[in-house]
């Protein structure tokens, strides 16, 4: 920029520490799943991630409130958030792709269809169906049953769709300068996010206790928990972010014309909602 200034944020240690904390948590999860080890390592990583998020939010808020960000920084933030959401789209596309591959190719091949149907000779009694209730071979036991999509999954779908509406109303209210209206509707959005997390936890309990849907229940259990589990993590993170935004709104932060943190949180939450609609259709209904 000729004749102008451009704010360069100070060197931050939070990205590195966040990566370390995430690595510790994933290591702990792997140890627990493979070796049934203690969950202490996983919890240490989780606490580390939450701590990094808190300190990182603090630094960004201080910089923003200090008037250090200009229009160029605003564009940088928008591009950064856009690419981040694109990376998240690719993240979930990989898991949806795995689900489609299994259902469209792998299971029919095991049943004798297609050019690789010769694999059916290994398990002549295998019945190709989805959900895969009876995996081939005796090493893996399939689930005892599956969820009805028109009960808890439908309730959670309605909750997330409603939360997108309440968040949009809150955003529009902020742009019009109606801060009290914004606070009320944003509070409702956070509460709906908490309700979703609670119901998802209840569904997981039902899956393990009554339906036999576990990570060991064949490919159906694995794909179910990978897709819904990662989505649940995103809902938790999104709810935390919206709660931080709510606190900032209560403290009088954000102007009608300048509130990208609110917008970024909204983009993320709407993305999470769209992913859930895909999950509801392809994991629960079809």
From TrEMBL:
<feature type="domain" description="Heme-copper oxidase subunit III family profile">
    <location>
        <begin position="2"/>
        <end position="286"/>
    </location>
</feature>
<feature type="transmembrane region" description="Helical">
    <location>
        <begin position="267"/>
        <end position="285"/>
    </location>
</feature>
<feature type="transmembrane region" description="Helical">
    <location>
        <begin position="150"/>
        <end position="170"/>
    </location>
</feature>
<keyword id="KW-1133">Transmembrane helix</keyword>
<dbReference type="GO" id="GO:0004129">
    <property type="term" value="F:cytochrome-c oxidase activity"/>
</dbReference>
<dbReference type="Pfam" id="PF00510">
    <property type="entry name" value="COX3"/>
</dbReference>
<feature type="transmembrane region" description="Helical">
    <location>
        <begin position="219"/>
        <end position="247"/>
    </location>
</feature>
<dbReference type="InterPro" id="IPR013833">
    <property type="entry name" value="Cyt_c_oxidase_su3_a-hlx"/>
</dbReference>
<feature type="transmembrane region" description="Helical">
    <location>
        <begin position="12"/>
        <end position="34"/>
    </location>
</feature>
<feature type="transmembrane region" description="Helical">
    <location>
        <begin position="40"/>
        <end position="58"/>
    </location>
</feature>
<dbReference type="GO" id="GO:0005886">
    <property type="term" value="C:plasma membrane"/>
</dbReference>
<protein>
    <recommendedName>
        <fullName>cytochrome-c oxidase</fullName>
        <ecNumber>7.1.1.9</ecNumber>
    </recommendedName>
</protein>
<feature type="transmembrane region" description="Helical">
    <location>
        <begin position="79"/>
        <end position="102"/>
    </location>
</feature>
<keyword id="KW-1278">Translocase</keyword>
<dbReference type="InterPro" id="IPR033945">
    <property type="entry name" value="Cyt_c_oxase_su3_dom"/>
</dbReference>
<dbReference type="InterPro" id="IPR035973">
    <property type="entry name" value="Cyt_c_oxidase_su3-like_sf"/>
</dbReference>
<dbReference type="GO" id="GO:0019646">
    <property type="term" value="P:aerobic electron transport chain"/>
</dbReference>
<dbReference type="InterPro" id="IPR000298">
    <property type="entry name" value="Cyt_c_oxidase-like_su3"/>
</dbReference>
<dbReference type="InterPro" id="IPR024791">
    <property type="entry name" value="Cyt_c/ubiquinol_Oxase_su3"/>
</dbReference>
<keyword id="KW-0812">Transmembrane</keyword>
<comment type="similarity">
    <text>Belongs to the cytochrome c oxidase subunit 3 family.</text>
</comment>
<feature type="transmembrane region" description="Helical">
    <location>
        <begin position="182"/>
        <end position="199"/>
    </location>
</feature>
<keyword id="KW-0472">Membrane</keyword>
């Amino acid at each position: 920029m000729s004749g102008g200034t451009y704010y360069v944020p100070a060197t931050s240690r939070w990205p590195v520490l966040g990566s370390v904390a995430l690595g510790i948590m994933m290591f702990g999860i792997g140890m627990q799943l493979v070796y049934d080890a203690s969950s202490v390592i996983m919890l240490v990583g989780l606490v580390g991630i939450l701590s990094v998020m808190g300190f990182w939010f603090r630094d960004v808020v201080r910089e923003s409130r200090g008037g250090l960000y200009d229009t160029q920084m605003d564009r940088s933030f928008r591009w950064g958030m856009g690419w981040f959401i694109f990376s998240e789209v690719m993240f979930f596309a990989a898991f949806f792709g795995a689900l489609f591959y299994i259902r469209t190719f792998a299971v029919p091949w095991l049943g004798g269809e297609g050019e690789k149907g010769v694999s059916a000779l290994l398990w002549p009694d295998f019945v190709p169906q989805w959900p895969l209730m009876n995996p081939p071979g005796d090493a893996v036991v399939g689930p005892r049953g599956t969820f009805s999509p028109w009960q808890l999954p439908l309730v959670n779908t309605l909750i997330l769709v409603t939360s997108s509406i309440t968040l949009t109303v809150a955003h529009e209210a902020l742009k019009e300068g109606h801060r009290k209206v914004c606070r009320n509707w944003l509070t409702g959005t956070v509460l709906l996010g908490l309700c979703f997390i609670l119901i998802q936890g209840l569904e997981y309990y039902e899956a393990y206790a009554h339906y036999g849907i576990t990570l060991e229940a064949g490919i159906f259990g694995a794909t179910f928990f990978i897709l819904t589990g990662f989505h649940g993590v995103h809902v938790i993170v999104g709810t935390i972010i919206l709660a931080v935004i709510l606190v900032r709104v209560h403290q009088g932060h954000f102007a009608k014309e300048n509130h990208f943190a609110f917008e970024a949180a909204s983009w993320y939450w709407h993305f999470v909602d769209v992913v859930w609609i895909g999950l509801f259709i392809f994991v629960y209904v079809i």
